[in-house]
Amino acid sequence: MGFFDFGTIFFLIAAVVIFFQLRNVLGRRTGSERPPFDPYTAARTDKDATQKPENVVSLPRKRAPGEPAAADTYTAIDAFAKPGTDLNKGLRAIKDNDSSFDPKGFVDGAKMAYEMIVMAYADGDRKTLKNLLSREVYDGFVAAIGEREAKSEKIQSSFVGIDKADIVSAEMKGGEAHVTLRIISELISATRDQAGTVIDGDPETVAEVKDVWTFARDTRSRDPNWKLVATEEED
């Protein structure tokens, strides 16, 4: 120990103490540490995250005016309605404003909506009707339901099914897409008075019902739902 003077021993002890302090504060490498921060890599990562967030689904964009359509844009429409007809032109116009529009998928959805509306009207289900009808049609349906309830009348209905549902016309009205369908369905329906007596329809007979309904959707809105905007019963 004579080789080291007091100052050397002091600095040696101080160095050991500092080493252990740093070790406790900074910890030891375990192999699972995050890599050093790289501002260039971080910038690219942040940019990618902004462009492709995991919880966002990219919607098909609307084609700009004058922009040519892709070769397969109207394939489904041309298979549905003969090219050159008014119906085909109307469906194409809707497709131009709503690239997600598919006529077959629309008909399938309209058939489901038709059954829901028919049964909701029979049951007096205003909440369901409000989500499926335009304001004007809703007001008409609710008025009829209110009149029925005031007389203590009830409709007894069983939906059998839809025999046929065809698009008969399609057009754009401003930013709104309008599609009209002719629907032939089978329904068992009877209206009973307060005493339970049948005053309209037949609870034992399946009746054929022919309707012409028009659905509309604002293609400028993010709301993908179509609503019933007009009804007509075909003789």
What's the short story on this structure?
The chain has 235 residues and is an alpha+beta fold. The protein has helices at residues 6-26, 39-51, 75-80, 86-97, 103-123, 126-132, 135-150, and strands at residues 154-173, 176-192, 198-201, 207-218, 227-233.
End-to-end Cα distance: 119 Å
Uncertain regions spanning at least 5 consecutive residues: 32-45, 47-61
- Derived from helix and strand composition plus strand pairing, the structural class reads alpha+beta
For the report, how would you describe the main beta sheet? Answer: 5 strands, antiparallel
What percent strand?
Answer: 25-35%
Number of helices: 7
The SSE string, one letter per element, is: HHHHHHHEEEEE
What is the global morphology?
elongated
Please, what is the average pLDDT?
Answer: 82
Total beta strands:
5
Q: How large is the radius of gyration?
A: 35 Å
* Fraction of residues in helix: 40-55%
Task: Describe the protein's architecture and organization.
The protein has helices at 6-26, 39-51, 75-80, 86-97, 103-123, 126-132, 135-150; strands at 154-173, 176-192, 198-201, 207-218, 227-233. It has 235 residues and is α+β, with helices and mostly antiparallel strands. Strands 1, 2, 3, 4 and 5 form a five-stranded antiparallel beta sheet that branches. Strand 4 (207-218) and strand 5 (227-233) form a beta hairpin.
